[in-house]
Specification:
With 136 residues, the protein is mainly beta. The protein has one domain. Helix content is 15%, strand content 46%. An eight-stranded antiparallel barrel has the order 2-3-4-5-6-7-8-9. The two termini are 24 Å apart.
Length: 136
């Protein structure tokens, strides 16, 4: 777990899962669920476009016509893949995701982002940060 403190807030990154490639699809394995980024969206993600994330169970139960449960995008710094799934924020190193796509790696580490503000700023913890244009 990595914790950083800036001004009046604390941000924690805790390993929670992994990202793997399976037949061109990026599979997101989190402790409690499995999600995917569609094969057609992987190149778009690498071109820095936001893409949809789908729950594997919904893909199967809707015969391939699921509703998205989140989005993935490359961070402004260009060093991470950010994911927002059901209101929670996750991060994976972009270099590791590129390693998966090139066949050099089997998986990329996935961490959950938790940000806590000091009691004077907010009454409850806030999870994650979302860039402009990406729905929460």
């Amino acid at each position: 777990m990595v914790t950083t403190t800036m001004a009046n807030n604390t941000t924690t990154l805790a390993h929670i899962g992994s990202i793997k490639q399976s037949d061109g699809v990026l599979r997101i394995d989190i402790k409690t669920r499995q999600c995917v980024i569609a094969r057609t969206d992987v190149p778009r993600l690498m071109e820095r476009w936001p893409v949809s994330i789908f729950d594997i169970a919904n893909v199967i139960s809707t015969c391939g016509q699921p509703e998205p449960i989140g989005q993935a995008w490359i961070s402004r710094s260009g060093r991470a893949v950010m994911l927002r799934i059901d209101g929670l924020s996750y991060v994976a190193p972009l270099s590791q995701v590129k390693g998966i796509l090139s066949g050099e790696r089997k998986y990329a580490h996935l961490s959950i982002i938790t940000e806590y503000f000091s009691p004077g700023q907010s009454a409850s913890p806030t999870i994650g940060c979302v860039p402009a244009g990406v729905p929460a």
